Amino acid sequence: MFTKDHVQRILEQAEKCRKGIENREIVGDELKGRVMGSMFYENSTRTKCSFDAAMKRFGGGVVDFIAEASSIKKGESFEDTISMMDGYSDVIVLRHPEVGAAERAAAIANKPVINAGDGTGQHPTQALLDLFTIRSELSTINGVTIALVGDLKNGRTVHSLAKILCLYKNITLHFVSPLNAGLEMPKSIIEYIKIHAPNFSMKTFTSFAEGIRGVDVIYMTRIQKERFTNSEEYEKVKGSFILTPKILNESREDDEDYDILGRNNNKLPIVMHPLPRVDEIAPEVDADERAAYFRQAQNGVYIRMALLKMVLGNL
Amino acid sequence: MFTKDHVQRILEQAEKCRKGIENREIVGDELKGRVMGSMFYENSTRTKCSFDAAMKRFGGGVVDFIAEASSIKKGESFEDTISMMDGYSDVIVLRHPEVGAAERAAAIANKPVINAGDGTGQHPTQALLDLFTIRSELSTINGVTIALVGDLKNGRTVHSLAKILCLYKNITLHFVSPLNAGLEMPKSIIEYIKIHAPNFSMKTFTSFAEGIRGVDVIYMTRIQKERFTNSEEYEKVKGSFILTPKILNESREDDEDYDILGRNNNKLPIVMHPLPRVDEIAPEVDADERAAYFRQAQNGVYIRMALLKMVLGNL
Amino acid sequence: MFTKDHVQRILEQAEKCRKGIENREIVGDELKGRVMGSMFYENSTRTKCSFDAAMKRFGGGVVDFIAEASSIKKGESFEDTISMMDGYSDVIVLRHPEVGAAERAAAIANKPVINAGDGTGQHPTQALLDLFTIRSELSTINGVTIALVGDLKNGRTVHSLAKILCLYKNITLHFVSPLNAGLEMPKSIIEYIKIHAPNFSMKTFTSFAEGIRGVDVIYMTRIQKERFTNSEEYEKVKGSFILTPKILNESREDDEDYDILGRNNNKLPIVMHPLPRVDEIAPEVDADERAAYFRQAQNGVYIRMALLKMVLGNL
User: Fold this and answer.
1) What molecular function terms (GO) are annotated for this protein (chains A, B, C) (predicted)?
2) Chain A residues with CB inside 8 Å of B61's CB?
3) Inter-residue contact A114 to A311 (CB < 8 Å)
């Protein structure tokens, strides 16, 4: 897990990367001649493409290890494959379906290994880009109220986000998942928050409308059909957790004029989603300026640029 | 559709790119740090590879969206995928099997979208490289005689070429396709030419030898077996539309010494083909200096360089 | 086949590349804007990735021809595909399952073609990196004793290595393969050595321990189960050809204090392997400083950098 200091430095570096791209101060010479070994043992389009874009914006090269085409079939061990790519690259980006894979790789490699998600384990770059998005959109992280919505049991991103938020202060978390669907936030995460962020407030909701009332951030996740044994139950639940412009508008609290940030609370909360979305956010919401999910995806490039720069910049 | 002015600027830019590569004036700094999002929803080796080469000759980076590996399976909409890549890239190159896909993408994206072919719709970069090839090989486009040969019904490239030629003057088109094979140039294209280029001359042929007699350009296309219900019919037709050195030599008109361009007509016409070829041009033709099809493929790089430069150069 | 002069120049260039990377003198501008066409008609992760890394360390671009996605299905000939890529690239790197493919390509292409392995034919870049590894690890190639171990019949790398070694002097080769397994070094290779390097000493062993006693290099290869008709036979053979720390330690000759290089012979021989390995070298050997196989893989980048630089550098 990251320290607060480390996280702050990454967020600041990511902010510099964003401005550097926007102002054309990043010219594509920064990491020229450097090689990122990209090892995706499972598909993850967004993570893969944003790491690629990050490296290439700095003028660096990417060498793709294609797992299906590889010597794995010939019986090569994970460790040997890592050692090979370690010899070819300046940094390894690893996505793997097994928990702990990134740690195993880091133990073997001489070059830095960036964990791009390992099974139900960590997905630290996603947590960082979520954090960066909240800070970018709301100018602060301390003191915000965040509704985590949907499948809170299986959604890795909401777990990682909840944990990294513990580095900040006075956050209110709304855990919003449908009644009797078994999709509640796991006790282990709640315990983690209680220990690491005792000043947090946590509330649980089964009503979508109530769960998002008055919040600063609505963090939507997908409710996967395959989690339900009863498809009738799924259809009922599904429909009630779709964010539409109407529901979004009604989330404003009419009885307060200003929110905790001193902003006029007539503003809607920002809407986040790790993507891909299916139908949990109506496309009509996209046009709203506070629909932040595509900016959130783009922020993934800045976070990954920040990490690559920090890891490779001073070599 | 392009205006004449726009097309001329692209052709001139492409000519500069060709010279820039040949003289080493293009050094690979021109688009460094810039990212092309490459989105091929269907395979097209030549189009994909030449766009990649174009971007890389300018020192730019390419981020590949791999459709089969993507979140499409999870139910993500085309529009959401475009929005994601739009956030990662400076320009999107899109190939898609559905007509209108490029327009749908352009309506969503903040960055420029280059249409690399959408179904039976447009394939504008192919039309441009065909045009560029004619101009490069013959020094002019106005006034030339072009035989379009083979499957004129289903061949998208001949439709696009015929339409873009309408921006020029006094062109003679020979539509050459086998008798009773139902592969004639569609009426809609012929009508388009009549309206947009009333000074064009159009002639229809069922004899290959007659159709290519005295022309400046023989544009060959493949006759696909699967278009025929009767395979005997196919075999008969197929054999009669194969370009051999003998047929090519006989295409010269002995009774005229100089063609419309004032060139000695003892020169053979140039031979074009969108590739891949199967057997419609005998390999023996390759050695002839007027076999232009591999230069035509290479011209695809210059046209795509021109487009990328025009779209990204002044950002 | 290479001349001695040519090989020496490549090895020296590769040494420069290694130092250039280590000292950051290679900055990623050397081949900027240049394009390597990467054509792998069969998978070869190590060769593919190390060529990619080599080109990208110089700041060059790679255009991938993906055989499965290509027009081959439409019936395009190998020659036509080469001509296409030739038009897009400054150099072609070709891996192909058929013997002679690289020569066929080179006959067609205007740009240089680097053979990255063609079937049971040549795999010259592997032979070069093996040679480079021996020179790097032992400071010399002349006069060394090398045990080639395992499947000497089907292992292409040991054939190529044995042949290229013939450019050097006074080498002793131990051919070590299991008894009655039909995996002996082919007579054609032995004849080749007798003709081209009459001053070589060659010995044949069926005992692993005896075959590696006192050598400078143990070059391990994999014994593939599918080569055996009798799986019991395989299991027996397999177990006896596994390099463990114990066997490695016992390979030292106690009765000699100094080896031919004047080094204290208490040093173990270096261990090489073309990789991927399965179980023919115990993972416990990895920690030994003379386990050279991962450095050997990394040397593949330097050799390929040397070749790309020599072929493209003075264009």
Assistant:
1) amino acid binding; aspartate carbamoyltransferase activity
2) 28, 52-53, 55-57, 59
3) yes
DSSP category for residue C142: T
Active site residues of A: 46-47, 74, 95, 123
Strand partners, B217: B146, B270
Separation between Cα atoms, residue B309 and residue B181, nearest integer Å: 43
Say if domain A124-297 classifies as CATH 3.40.50.1370.
yes
List CB contacts (< 8 A) between C60 and chain B. Answer: 56
Chain A residues with CB inside 8 Å of B313's CB? none
Active-site residue flag, C263: no
Q: What is the pLDDT of residues B274-309, one digit of tens each?
A: 999 988 999 999 999 999 999 999 999 999 999 999
Write down which chains contact chain B via at least 3 CB pairs under 8 A.
A, C
- Domain at B4-122+300-312: CATH architecture: 3-Layer(aba) Sandwich (3.40)
Cβ neighbours of residue A254 under 8 Å, at least 6 residues apart? none
Query: Within 10 Å of residue A139's Cβ, how many Cβ atoms?
Result: 9
Q: What is the pLDDT of residues A222-243, one digit of tens each?
A: 887 777 777 777 777 777 799 9
Distance CA A88, CA B133 (A): 41
Confidence of residue A289 (pLDDT cuts 50, 70, 90): very high
* CB-based contact B276 C69, cutoff 8 Å: no
The CATH 3.40.50.1370 portion of chain B extends over 4-122+300-312, 124-297
Which tokens go with A15?
A: 């902010």
Going through B150-272 in order, the beta strands assigned E by DSSP cover 172-176, 201-205, 217-220, 270-272
